[in-house]
Write a structure and sequence with these properties.
94 residues, alpha+beta, 4-stranded antiparallel beta sheet
Amino acid sequence: MDCYIYYRSAVSHQQQVAEQAGKLQLLLQKAADAAELKRRPEAEKEMHTWMEIYKNIPLDFAAQMEAALPLTMLPSLIDGPRHIEYFMDVPPCA
């Protein structure tokens, strides 16, 4: 299963968001096979949309994320909620 988390942050916080999201991903590196950080190429109303991706996560990933997130400054840089969605691999039909 993979976890996708997206949120918005002010363009002026771009550097700090990248640093703090990177710190969060380091804290969670043992919980996921791979982690990625992405940002939409364009800003809308002086806001960037960011996405964290965590691949092949364990069932207790949400608890690990809740424990790690307060160890960063990321929550103070985000405008609004962090939207969290989970997707699982589906084998193709034969």
